[in-house]
Amino acid sequence: MAKTLLDRSDAVRALAGVFRRRGFESGSLSVIQHETGIGRGSLYHFFPDGKSDMARAVLDQVSVWFDEHVFEPLRATEKGADAVRAMCREVGAYFVSRERVCLYAAMTLGEERATFAESVRAYFTDWVEALSTALQHGGLSDDAADAAALDAVATIQGGLILARAYDDDQTLLDIVARVEKRLLDALA
Amino acid sequence: MAKTLLDRSDAVRALAGVFRRRGFESGSLSVIQHETGIGRGSLYHFFPDGKSDMARAVLDQVSVWFDEHVFEPLRATEKGADAVRAMCREVGAYFVSRERVCLYAAMTLGEERATFAESVRAYFTDWVEALSTALQHGGLSDDAADAAALDAVATIQGGLILARAYDDDQTLLDIVARVEKRLLDALA
DNA sequence: GTCTATAAAGCGATAGAC
DNA sequence: GTCTATCGCTTTATAGAC
Fold it and tell me: Whole-angstrom Cα distance, residue B114 to residue B120?
């Protein structure tokens, strides 16, 4: 692991894993160094401003992923039901493979929440608005679509909490499946 | 504040506030000392094992509150719809007055989650099972009640995340109101 | 029960060699 | 790009006076 000559996005991926497992505030530099196998020098080479730089980079990478795999498809897919199905598939697989942690949700707790408050808000409004758009494409009124989208995102986020509390991926997948069913029923 | 001769439950209440605002892991002893007005000596007098002792005491106090105000009424109230209405009223008011933070949900993240994993699991299973019992009293089948209860708790927990992300109590209250409506519709 | 002083450890961050 | 050594500060926890 030592002489691997990483690039920055390798480092960001490794950091995201540590932050998901240990939280943003715990994960000391020594822990980060140990768990990522990236030395102190490299860390400060990639992230000159230290931990807040790391957090920003990790959140940005999550944001890019969701834009590409979730938000844009929700807005662009013509058939609302297809858009809903695709979202549930992508999101379920994503969180199962990412330790059942939404790093943006994690950022609503803890000391430094103010630092990232604006991008956290943007992440959730983007998600809710994109889903609402898809539901409107499927025939729902603006208000009904907004409410259903907000409830769906909330239920998925709560599903992550319960999946962690129960230490069980299937809890999340079942909840996502029922969210999908409810949304499809509303469109029918 | 200095010579007030507090008792332990005053200290627990003050600690809960700090943990909700700053998170379990941040909130250093200096911060705790400053924000609670309780000196280092008193803190270690009440909580000899330090921070983990404090966390345990705070979680226990939350558990007692929910048992008394939420779980027991859910199990005991004969009319399922009344039980659901009471739960939504209590829970909405509770979280609005507690910085929109569920400390048990917060414990599913971060370094020390393993320490409290068992009591976190118990909190959520108690809630879900008590709500499921109420829904069964209202006429739902076991399976339907279990699923509806799990989804309801998840949606409320996600509602807390969104309310923090949007910095808006009404987001939570709206979500809780729609959860209530959905449960009552299912009982009708 | 509360205070202050302090010990011992760990922290984030920097410097400079390679 | 990576490493190690180190600075200066903060942390948790303890000790002992009141």
Answer: 10
